[in-house]
Specification:
The complex is a heterodimer of chains A (181) and B (129).
Chain A: H1 5-18, E1 23-30, E2 34-41, H2 48-53, H3 73-84, E3 87-93, E4 97-105, H4 117-125, E5 132-139, E6 142-147, H5 148-155, H6 161-178
Parallel strand pairs in A: 1-5
Antiparallel strand pairs in A: 1-2, 2-4, 3-4, 5-6
Helix pairs in contact in A: 1-3, 1-4, 4-6
Chain B: H1 6-23, E1 30-35, H2 38-43, H3 45-58, E2 64-69, E3 81-84, E4 91-93, H4 98-110, E5 119-121
Parallel strand pairs in B: 1-2
Antiparallel strand pairs in B: 1-3, 3-4, 4-5
Classes of the chains: A alpha+beta (181), B alpha+beta (129).
Chain lengths: 181, 129
Amino acid sequence: MHATLCDMIMDLVQNSIEADASEITLSVEETEEKLMVVITDNGKGMSAETLEKVKDPFYSDGLKHRHRKVGLGLPFLFQTAEMTGGTAGIESQEGVGTTVTFTLDRSNVDVPMFGDFTTAAMTLMTYGFDVNLKIERSIGEKNYAISRAELNDALGDLNDAESLVLLKEFIASQEADLGTL
Amino acid sequence: MAKMTLEELRNLRESKKKEMVQRDGDEKSAQIIIGMGTCGIAAGAKEAFDAFLDELNSHEIKDTRITQTGCMGLCFSEPTVEVAVPGMPRVIYGNVTDKVARRIVREHIIEKALVSDHIFDKPAADIIK
């Protein structure tokens, strides 16, 4: 199980990257009571038959690791939602894309800590695939949105140590404005 | 901390680029590849990423790239990190905690010495002292 919700979010966004998506949107909205996350991609999607199996931790399509028989990212999400009285859902259409949605009750003592979103966002933005990832984040009335294309335009090579330092500073300034830091 | 705009970010990058050109024109010399699969994330690869970046920044090392990859197949020793420095063997380090990440920057990247007690793959045994 992941230690924080940010770790879980990273894992789910990576699924979209690995589904050959060219556009991914991650929306993370917090209110006093709830955390709502939506991950939408235009990747290869899944058939209805595959979609039925994704909650099973002992199911894997075998494409990434030929000999592995486990796939834990989505099962972690559904298990967390079930354990804490939250909701989680996945919709997918082959050749169109996938949307993963979850809502968690922040007052439930078993909901994992949210974690460090600045590093999670920096990590996702520099994952190394040619994907335009957009992050929309809001807490109450405050919000910000950033996209990988805009960051690439401003910084050039995002994996360069100098760019990474500036990228982290940039995302941290957005998070500070939301009041999380 | 004031909310930074993209324009301010672009300007900062441009000013740093100018400083770099004035300092030297060397190409990137080292590459750090962090395993960021489910196993790596669960074991703390994100914290290792943060520690690498912080340590590189504190030593003002600019000529390094940090990239990510999926699971390297060494799930038992996550977080795993591959380090490539010109003139040295490529090495995969395992159990790279925050402290180990900082050691890799100081010992491997700066002092050009392998962090032998965390090597999980490559180079051959006779190279590791």
